[in-house]
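Researcher: Last one for today. Full complex below.
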Amino acid sequence: DTKVLSANAPLGVGVDQELISAVPSHNPTFVSRNFTDAEIAYCRSQPSPPSSFAARWVGKEAVFKSLGVKSQGAAAAMKEIEILNDDSGVPTVYLHGRAKVQAAEKGISKVLISLSHSETVAIAFAQASS
Amino acid sequence: DTKVLSANAPLGVGVDQELISAVPSHNPTFVSRNFTDAEIAYCRSQPSPPSSFAARWVGKEAVFKSLGVKSQGAAAAMKEIEILNDDSGVPTVYLHGRAKVQAAEKGISKVLISLSHSETVAIAFAQASS
Amino acid sequence: DTKVLSANAPLGVGVDQELISAVPSHNPTFVSRNFTDAEIAYCRSQPSPPSSFAARWVGKEAVFKSLGVKSQGAAAAMKEIEILNDDSGVPTVYLHGRAKVQAAEKGISKVLISLSHSETVAIAFAQASS
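Model: Here's the assembly. Have a good evening.
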């Protein structure tokens, strides 16, 4: 049984939202467990670090959903989903470790992400494709 | 006049949100008119049935928008858009009846969906493609 | 160095949200600077013009993000991103001026958009592809 995955097939989408106040970005353990050094440096350099951490947090959740893998709850390694801005300021997804392996197994070669935060709410959308 | 639709062409997107308190999931007529038996069983098994009904409700609205068909308002048969979780817990769209026919007429062969709810708000995103 | 972009490649996504009350649609300068005549006529014909202006405003922001170009802040010509409903009521994106040029340079040939507003919040999602 052969399965041919054409290029650019949409394979998953993910949306997530959270109250900024509900993301414990003031907790060093939460931050170091879930964000890479580059993400932490970026978020701390922004006008409102709590908003930036919250936006990246929902971004990671949205990417995770777009991968379509079974949730491991608190055990999910959100640090394996890294979101860094490119030269144009566009948030870009880098997968590491098991997240990278799981994406490859599903034929996912690209995950696009967009982030937004208002005064109180952070929201993210992710799209995974072959 | 021949129109060739290549595979994986993005044909529509849909976003919808609603206050969970604004979705009348306590109303048996609303529930039985808009949700399939399998959806009802799933939502009632969840920790917060009102949140789950609301998330599926906005999911149906988002799928409907992604199909790009004219709205029939209250007459739209939201039961024809069924959202059930697959084995990995990923919400998956099944179209029935007129919704299925309309999607086929537009060349839509796949609709991806993601759902999210916070304490108060449910949100969904859908993506339709050939 | 030749780059071949296949059709239907997903090139960017964009999400944006705003409190409806935070979009100054009562300000004629804001409106005339950011909306085309056709958009203004449409929004003013709707049951709640502030909600419609806010939805289109976040729609423009979401499209802008999906193009993946560097933000020019207040100088960004949001009027160059026009969102008009088609015959089925589906919001459709038309790019003009520099936005059109920048999209073409990135190989973007299509931008899909969906808009939603609750009582208080407007949200939009955009998807750009080749």
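Chain C has a mean pLDDT of 92. Chain C touches chain A at residues 6-19, 22, 62, 65-66, 68-71, 121, 123, 125, 127, 129 (CB under 8 Å).
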